[in-house]
Sequence to fold (276 residues):
Amino acid sequence: MPLPPAPDYRLHFNGPWGRKSGVLLLPSSFAVTNNPMKFQPIKPKKVSSQIADQIRESILAGDFSPGDKLPPERELAEMFGVSRPSVREALNILSSSGLVMSYQGGGTVVLSLVEAGHGGGALSELIRSQQERALEVIEVRKCMESWTAYFAAQRALPEDLGRMEEILVGMERNLEGRLPSEDLDANLHIVIARSTHNIVWLHLMQSIFDAMKEFQRGVWRAVYLTSEDHHLLYQHHAAIVTAIRTRDAEGARQAMMHHLDFAEKRSIAYVAGQPA
Fold:
């Protein structure tokens, strides 16, 4: 009588890798490693890097506009409680990243995020040589600034509103003294852009205003000649600020568009009256 077959004590299994016996074969993703996780040692951050980080955050928060000067090295060293060489190294870090430029004897200037060079040089030169190009810039301003006013009405902080009110007070004082407010006018538009708390809006606006500065000065001195003109401009700006203060975003957008429509008409008259 034949003996029964010996019991098969091997492990049999079926799975996505086929039927195997004796040894369980796992895919490589299930493999267990004996190598422990390797942690990297913590490196203390250099003082200059920490200084650069804080200045960068301040620039990107809109505390400084393109063209603004940073405090001198000595003052920065006192503010941070560090040595001047550490501050100098921090400024070199920021300079290499394109946020600032240091001039010998001229301090350190914040650069625009939206142009390769400082001061809108190429656009400024184009407007100087072909003044009708300024009208194209005004068309762009109408699109941009109507929406900066809209977002400023939604986002302006109490300190932003305070700056706008201070500028209006200055404009009103100039009306009483029959003085022009061209600088206050430009400053108010920049403060509104800053009040969006969108750094790209601010840098775009500042770059355009830098490029248009000479043209705008000419417009102010050639076509805004009467007391009625100055009172009308004040009313435009007061209406914009009122809409922003009352959180009327659409009203702020329309008030800014109305103001820039008026400025566009006066600029067209100015260009038409210039010699060819």
Q: What stands out?
A: DSSP finds ten helices and four strands in the chain. The chain has two domains: 47-110, 121-271.
